[in-house]
Amino acid sequence: MPNVAALTLSPAGRHSEIRYRLPGELAVSADAFECAAVPFEQASPMRNVRPRRGQRNFCGDWWMATGHRHVAFESWVERDFLISADFAPEIVAVSSQPFTFDRSSKTAPRRSHTPDFFLRLADGSACVVDVRPEALVKPPDQEQFDATEQLCDELGWSYRRVGEQPAVLSANLRWLTGYRFPRACDRGTAEIVEAQMLRSGSLTLRELARAVGDPVVALPTIYHLIWNQTLRLDLRSRLLHEHAEVTVSSA
């Protein structure tokens, strides 16, 4: 069992204590100015995410191509968020239930909260995320989220509360997840696809697959290139279809 470390912050008369677990037998002591150096993206979950008899939500582990590790989720909404995070090139690492903080002051009651996710971004910055559909946010929940956002502001992190992902985008990303791993991409086919797109600039999905050769062979590689955003198409307006326009990423 990893050791639990505590980090105490006391800005503006407030007292905040962060508890977290790192892999192995690590004992960490840090003040607010050292907090940015703590690799919360590697943290172990602060509570077990396991199904219980009679629960309404579905929980499990999602294998992230980003970071090459399982990340726990406690609902389909959280699972869909993880898929969107896996697709986002600016996110390089994700951890679930990364820490628990207790916060108190002379003018506010003591609050304790475990955020859903910690994101490490490509530029080294950090973002803490809570996932809760708007319809399920009650006043006590909002107070917790406000306290979490305030804590993140003090630490120089960003904070987001997200709800359900857009339905069409979410469905398309779920399809593409089947092709996100390198095994889905044939390097020779990918070179033909990229050369064809450089010549054509824009083709429908059907045209591109047929121009490359056998669509059954070509499509897994094409989907992989869409997932890693070498190729682009509109994933928000319609479900993937053979007449969707494919272009080369400008990035």
Structure in words:
The chain has helices spanning 76-87, 139-155, 167-176, 187-200, 205-212, 215-227; strands at residues 4-9, 15-21, 29-30, 60-64, 69-73, 91-96, 100-104, 111-113, 117-121, 126-131, 158-162, 202-204, 231-232, 245-248. By secondary structure, the protein is α+β, with helices and mostly antiparallel strands. The chain has two domains: 17-162, Trna Endonuclease, Chain: A, domain 1; 167-248, Arc Repressor Mutant, subunit A. The strands form four sheets. The chain has a five-stranded mixed sheet with strand order 3-1-2-7-8, with helices on one face. A four-stranded mixed sheet has the order 6-9-10-11, with helices on both faces. Strands 12-14-13 form a three-stranded antiparallel sheet. α4 (187-200) crosses α5. The longest helix has 17 residues, at 139-155. The relative contact order is 0.11. Residues 89-161 form the TnsA endonuclease N-terminal domain. Pfam families: Tn7_TnsA-like_N (PF08722). This is TnsA endonuclease N-terminal domain-containing protein.
